[in-house]
Amino acid sequence: MWLTRLAGFATLAHVFVAYLGYFWPPAESGLQRIAIITGLVITLTVINLIGVRESARASDIFTISKLIPLLVFVAVGLFFISPARSLWRQDQAWDRSRQRCSY
Predict the structure, then answer these.
(1) 70: domain range?
(2) Which of 5, 11, 44, 68 has the most C-beta neighbours closer than 10 Å?
């Protein structure tokens, strides 16, 4: 079981560097790759050593930092919705709902 956890963490570190390499190509090889992986491991180790409460806070911060761009993306997308161009009209939805409820 410990081997599985170790391999899983190594995979996540590799994927993190690969995704970062998409935005910053030098991160995928050489000294930069080693520095990024080492910094990631040290940062997570320090957070873990500090305590459970701080680790939970860090997890909350990471979760919020992932959700904020998604919410911004949805908000911007809602701004560009045009009901006039929609194929699904309100009267069709109402008629189908009424038919389903009448059975």
Answers:
(1) 51-81
(2) 44
